[in-house]
Design brief:
Layout: H1 2-17, H2 53-66, E1 85-89, H3 98-111, E2 115-122, E3 125-132, E4 135-143, E5 149-157, H4 160-172
Antiparallel strand pairs: 1-5, 2-3, 3-4, 4-5
Length: about 180
């Protein structure tokens, strides 16, 4: 079951890397950019000038916790993909108003330099694609309070090295 979930996540990541909702990583990290809400400093760029996974996680975590979310313990990103993918799932039971917290998180991320490139809003599901410095994030709010509710922020590095890793992981887990 766990392999199937990661295979699905890897397949989604391959779609992100292949260009769905991405502008090819044309944005570059800007030194001195405003920090995401809740973080004490701007995320640091990796050696190539693009964000690294630790910086992306810090931005998501800072924005989400400032908006009232706590991180829900869950499956870790596979070791081979840790430098290419960040998964942050909110513990929706601890949020007073998950939709408001979701909207506030997305607003803080866009204020911190993430560019909203696509929105899918259907009844009880909202998925926004945000792009920054070679990363593409799917910010999702599915369901409603009292029923199944899931809020997640999944970001992937859209560079060719990570695309190769995602494809290898997908092929390995296809069995």
């Amino acid at each position: 079951m766990r392999k199937a979930r990661w295979a699905a996540a890897a397949a989604g990541a391959v779609l992100l890397v292949a260009g769905c909702g991405s502008e090819g990583g044309s944005d570059k990290a800007k030194e001195g950019a405003a920090p995401a809400a809740g973080s004490s400093a701007p995320a640091k760029a990796g050696s190539s000038g693009a964000l690294d996974a630790a910086a992306v996680k810090k931005e998501i975590e800072g924005a989400a916790t400032a908006a009232g979310f706590a991180e829900k313990a869950g499956d870790d990103v596979p070791a081979a993909l840790k430098s290419c993918m960040v998964s942050w799932v909110a513990d929706t039971k601890k949020a007073t108003d998950s939709k408001k917290s979701y909207d506030d998180t997305v607003a803080a991320l866009t204020k911190g330099g993430w560019k909203e490139s696509r929105t899918l809003d259907q009844q009880i599901s909202v998925v926004k694609t945000l792009d920054k410095s070679g990363w593409s994030m799917k910010a999702s709010h599915h369901g409603k309070a009292g029923a199944m509710l899931m809020v997640s922020f999944i970001a992937t590095d859209t560079g060719p090295a990570c695309e190769k890793l995602f494809q290898e992981d997908l092929a390995k887990n296809k069995q």
